[in-house]
Amino acid sequence: xxxxxxxxxxTHNRNHIFYVGITNNxxxxxFEHKNxxxxxxxxKYNIKKLVYFEEHKDVRIAIRREKTIKKWKREWKMNLITExxxxxxxxxxxxxxxxxxxxxx
Length: 105
What we know:
The protein is of the alpha+beta class and 105 residues long. It has a single domain, classed as GIY-YIG endonuclease, CATH 3.40.1440. It contains four helices and three strands; from the N terminus they run ββααβαα.
């Protein structure tokens, strides 16, 4: 099974703050973000809405893309999101993330 890596952008309900990241498991990572606490940047600012993601086969490309997007102007990020997701919906809204809801002792 080929490896997959994701570069993604999260925002909050008012779409003012962006978080750009990478992961090899987008569903698990969204569970972690949606359940983050106030102690984290994502939790503190309620940045839990997945508005953009892209898939890569090479982790180096995903990392390079993350670094590139992080350097972009706000307007460029907004244009990228709007291209893929014109209504800025939460792309993870219908995902079943319950399999990641396991307490670690």
